[in-house]
Amino acid sequence: LKQDRFAFKKVMFNYPTRPDVQVLQGLNINVEKGQTLALVGSSGCGKSTVVQLLERFYDPLDGELVSDSL
Ligand SMILES: Nc1ncnc2c1ncn2[C@@H]1O[C@H](COP(=O)(O)OP(=O)(O)OP(=O)(O)O)[C@@H](O)[C@H]1O
Ligand SMILES: [Mg+2]
What we know:
mainly beta; Rossmann fold; three-stranded antiparallel sheet; binds magnesium ion; Type_1_exporter; ATPase-coupled transmembrane transporter activity; ABC transporter domain-containing protein; ABC_transporter-like_ATP-bd; ATP hydrolysis activity
């Protein structure tokens, strides 16, 4: 992680084209500089979605992403 830290705070998200599928339902993540985070889970649970939000390809519908360097 290049930022000093980042956090997902109660992040809610579904894709605009699929409002019926709630992908993230209040996700909380905290990662400090020097830490490595592994996202583990079954196919379709939202791992790649977390990365896309981190890269700001999408905005959360509720909650927030916090980063020291953004
Ligand atoms: N671009 C998209 N548009 C609409 N729905 C999507 C899109 N990408 C993913 N989804 C849906 O969002 C949910 C989470 O998908 P995601 O790709 O984040 O899962 P994943 O944990 O990365 O799965 P995998 O292990 O197969 O890579 C799934 O229900 C998926 O069908
Ligand atoms: Mg994936």
